[in-house]
Amino acid sequence: MASNDSRTGVLVFGLGRFGSALADTLDSMDIEVLAVERDPNLVEWWSRRLPCVEADGADPRALEQIGAQDFAAAVVGVGTSLEASVLITGNLVDAGVPEIWAKATSTEHKRILERIGAHHVVLPEADAGARVAHSVGGRMLDYIEIEDGFTIVKMRPPKETHHFSLDKLGLEEKYGVHVIGVKAQGRDFEYAKPDTIVGPDDLLVVAGEGELLERFSQRP
């Protein structure tokens, strides 16, 4: 088995909408990727664009043949079969892949994947729904929960912040949120400084606990 330091590349299991989009994006970023798919028709189509192999990740022997243990990370994008998702994830854990991401279709599915050793589990539809919910009808334009409630949002500034510098506003003391950067119209993104002045048409990138950010975004 290769040492952790020499492992490279990402294995992507499943070439459905989630897996194919992820693998295609990784490839466009010049990240070494190998897609693994059972359906020969999908393999044939995607092999024109991506390195692909027809194999069943639920079979430990197949993972050994493609050298799964030599990859730095793996993503289990299989969503149609809970059994296949669990088996593939378990096999990757047994193979010692250091970073395992898995797609879940329900909270129960997520719990199972975490219990068998997946390092990161995502619920794409739920996550997308939450992001839209936070954005609809409010100042938030984007919402990303990182971990344990810590969140980063892109939002329009409340009126009380207009034309004031960040050090004068004291947003961390008042609301428990931290402005990371400011994007003014027609200008490049700038990391926030104490003397950064917030304009009414600016976009703010703000970090903090989700509940505190929600309250801050509801300020008039």
Q: Could you name the key traits of this structure?
A:
five-stranded antiparallel β-sheet; Alpha-Beta Plaits; alpha/beta; Rossmann fold; 220 residues; single chain; 2 domains; six-stranded parallel β-sheet
Describe it for me?
The protein has 220 residues and is α/β, with parallel strands linked by helices. It has two domains: 4-122, Rossmann fold (3-Layer(aba) Sandwich); 127-217, Regulator of K+ conductance, C-terminal domain (Alpha-Beta Plaits, 2-Layer Sandwich). It contains nine helices and eleven strands. It has helices at 17-28, 40-46, 60-65, 82-95, 107-116, 124-135, 166-169, 171-175, 210-217, and strands at residues 10-13, 33-37, 52-54, 73-76, 100-103, 120-122, 140-147, 150-155, 178-183, 190-191, 203-209. The strands form two sheets. The protein has a six-stranded parallel sheet, with helices on both faces. Helix 5 (107-116) links the parallel strand 5 and strand 6. Helix 4 (82-95) runs parallel beside helix 5 (107-116). The N and C termini lie far apart (58 Å). The mean pLDDT is 87.
* Strand neighbour order, sheet with most strands: 3-2-1-4-5-6
Fourth-level CATH superfamily of the largest domain: NAD(P)-binding Rossmann-like Domain
User: What integer is the average pLDDT?
Assistant: 87
Return the CATH class of the largest domain: Alpha Beta
- Beta fraction: 15-25%
